[in-house]
Amino acid sequence: MASHAPFTDSDTADEAVRATCDDASTCKRFATSKGYWSDPYIQYFVRQTGERKAPEINRGYYARVQGVNHLLDAFLQKTQCDCQVVNLGAGLDTSFWRLKAENTLPKKYFEVDFPMIVARKIHHIKAKSQLSKPLIETHSSDSLLLDGHSLDSDRYCIIGADLRDISSLEEKLRKFQINTELPTLFVSECVLVYMNPEQSYRLVHWAADTFHTAMFINYEQVNMADRFGQIMIENLQRRQCNLAGVDVCQSLDSQKERFLSTGWESVNALDMMTVYSLLPQDDMSRIERLEFLDEKELLQQLLQHYSICWAVKDALSLGDFKFKTITYF
């Protein structure tokens, strides 16, 4: 009988982290089904809307999606799409399809995640023409490079890799023609928090050190030292999900310091309650009519414990990326 390597604590932790991909995708699927924002592609990755989610969860995801998209779209606009995007821990994200539909694709859109998640995503793309057709339309030759843990086309690439292994990550990105001379946007959403501080510092330092003009958008927890934060940590621990990087999530200042100490020139950070308050009032009125929210204080607490931090290394003088100038999302 064949012997198998023992299942270690790190395997259990990684499996719990991979499960957060399904959690986020299911929450987005439910929120879009209620009309919070439009995403015609999420249904091809998550078929069922699942059980009802609380209104504060839906509004939290709405603010998350709008906040990240605002900065992503601003980067594309400032670079006139002459850039590349690297989504770290992308999961079942649908941004490539949105940008293709809006005719605002970067030169190339990269996604990186655990090989197991990448294999699932590739399976969905191969099986559903609504996903594969837009990809093929941006590809110049008859065939795509496609295997179980990677997919590569002219404008879109998915790579199975462990973000804690920088040398392997860089090797795979270079294999698929990442261009370190091109302005590059890194996006991570609730990813760095599952790496210990040394690992996440190493990753963001590599990004600053390797790319001449770059921006890094990081969405994750903040203000985790208070009682509400401790409850969030305990809830995740019950699911075997350890926030290995929670020490960096103590405050907006600690979030910014990770980037300032690793070679990034300027850093901004806002908690999601602030981002929520900056969203266009007409759209806020629209989403607040979708569901009655009884626990407004709970929404406020929830949003105060997540943040968007964005760091810039601006060799091409792209200028500021500010939330106070929001006129649309």
From TrEMBL:
Task: Provide the GO MF annotations for this entry.
Answer: protein C-terminal leucine carboxyl O-methyltransferase activity
Q: Which residues does S-adenosyl-L-methionine bind? A: R64, G89, D162, L163, E189
The catalysed reaction is:
[phosphatase 2A protein]-C-terminal L-leucine + S-adenosyl-L-methionine = [phosphatase 2A protein]-C-terminal L-leucine methyl ester + S-adenosyl-L-homocysteine
- Sorted alphabetically, which keywords does the UniProt record give? Methyltransferase, S-adenosyl-L-methionine, Transferase
Q: Which SUPFAM superfamilies match?
A: S-adenosyl-L-methionine-dependent methyltransferases
Q: What is this protein called?
A: Leucine carboxyl methyltransferase 1
Function (record text): Methylates the carboxyl group of the C-terminal leucine residue of protein phosphatase 2A catalytic subunits to form alpha-leucine ester residues.
GO BP terms: methylation; regulation of signal transduction
